[in-house]
Amino acid sequence: MSLQYEPVIDELSDEYPDRPELYFMRSSHRRERRWPRVIGIVQIIVGVLIAFLGALECFIIPMAESKDYKHDIRFDQSTCYGAGLIAGFVMVLTGSTAIRASLSKRKTTVYRFYNLTLFTLLLYIGMTVFLIVAYANGWTNKKAYPEGSHMHQVHMFVTIFTVLGLLFALTAVVLYYDVVCCGENKLWEWWATSLCSACYGK
Asked: Helix, strand, coil % (nearest 5) of the chain?
């Protein structure tokens, strides 16, 4: 099976208009590889849902259930310090970068997308572990919330969608690994060049 590289000229990005770089798409049997537009849209939708659920447990439900209006905002153990909000905003940013990469196809934009995807994957791994540990320690189990409160149910949805976000981030890393890291323009070489430039000031 032979591999062919098809040059794609970036006509949609306004970065470096006087330097029309080419980004090579790796294809097999002349079939063009799909870029992360669909997964970017899905990531944005999931990110908005997670951020909304995070806002529910941090702001909306505490304000609705508060009787003395002294605990309207909750960034404490019961909400895992706003983990849902943070996870949602990062996922929306990652999805937006994925869509931009699918439109632009410039090396710099694709690198930015993959770097942010790797960061999101690591963040979601940490968030998932943190949510599990918080539940195991009794921070977010049903007994930790006032009787009749909906905080526990909302937090369970935050946990579920965070795990889904982790799966989407992992999918993006696996799907586009060969394009970004094993193609004509290797991400590892760009990392090494950037590190050397930062260390030696060149």
From this structure: 65, 5, 30
How many residues would you count in the chain?
202
Q: Which residue in 113, 55, 38 sits closest to 89, CA to CA?
A: 55
What's CA 108's distance to the chain center, in Å? 18
Least Cα distance to 150 among 56, 75, 83, 85 occurs for 56
- Return the H-helix or E-strand segment holding 27: strand 22-28
**pTM value surpassing 0.85:** no
Q: Tell me the torsion sign for CA atoms 109, 113, 118, 122.
A: positive
Q: Which residue is it, tokens 């969608």? A: 161
Query: What is the crossing angle of helices 151-175 and 37-55, to 10°?
Result: 160
Report, as ranges of residue numbers, the positions in the chain whose pLDDT lies below 70: 1-34, 69-71, 183-185, 187-202
Q: How far apart are CA 87 and CA 109, in angstroms?
A: 22
Cα 120–54–150 angle (5° rounding)?
145
